[in-house]
Design a protein that fits this description.
By secondary structure, this protein is an alpha+beta fold. It has helices at residues 5-15, 19-28, 33-51, 82-85, 88-104, 116-132, 137-155, 170-181; strands spanning 58-65, 71-79, 161-162, 165-169, 186-194. Helix 2 crosses helix 3 and helix 5 (88-104) packs antiparallel against helix 8 (170-181).
Length: 199
């Protein structure tokens, strides 16, 4: 199948990958957009993993206040250089993430941030629930794992479906930005305030 410029442009717009990378993915899949997109997603995740050990000490503190001034968010997101920190793609990512935090109320950045005692308690609770439902012992672990994943989606920013496109998780957005910008990107921390809430 002939790979046209329009096909490459469309895939590039959908994935954020480079022109030649998009063209090679389309050639490898004989023009199949879905397979080409999957190839680029895997490559992006591999690149993000390669960059994860690189120090990310630049970045921005992004602040958001809801129009009614009832919700406020402050988040630190880091990258490797001030050049990328000032890039429009990075700035848009930072803004999208504070909107996500305001709307979806995550508690932690990622599951590794959940205290061990909290995790132990949650796992025990899910395990007891599954056993009380009469599930066989060999199925209980699978049920607990599924419920944990759902729990992470509720309370961990990186695991949440993105509010503007729930086919993507927040971590996928960050991987896309890493692939496009070529630097490690890390959400360091955030705080969300809601008027009148108990601390």
């Amino acid at each position: 199948m002939k790979i046209t410029t329009e096909m490459v442009k469309q895939l590039r717009n959908e994935t954020g990958a480079g022109v030649m990378e998009s063209k090679r993915a389309l050639e490898a899949t004989n023009g199949d957009f879905e397979k080409a997109s999957e190839i680029l997603k895997v490559k992006g995740a591999d690149r993000a993993a390669e960059r994860s050990d690189r120090a990310a000490t630049e970045g921005v503190i992004e602040v958001y206040s809801h129009l009614a001034k009832r919700v406020g968010v402050m988040m630190e997101i880091n990258c490797e250089s001030d050049f990328v920190a000032n890039n429009e793609i990075f700035q848009t990512l930072a803004h999208d993430l504070v909107l996500q935090i305001a709307a979806m109320e995550p508690i932690y950045v990622q599951s590794d941030d959940i205290p061990k005692e909290t995790m132990d308690s949650i796992v025990a609770e899910f395990s007891q629930q599954a056993s009380a439902e009469g599930k066989p012992a060999d199925i209980v672990d699978k049920i607990v794992s599924g419920r944990l994943n759902k729990y992470y989606e509720e309370i961990c920013l990186l695991e949440q479906p993105f509010v503007k496109d729930d086919d993507k998780k927040v971590k996928d957005l960050i991987v896309d930005a890493i692939r496009t910008l070529g630097e490690n990107i890390v959400v360091r921390r955030f705080v969300r305030y809601e008027l009148g809430e108990e601390l």
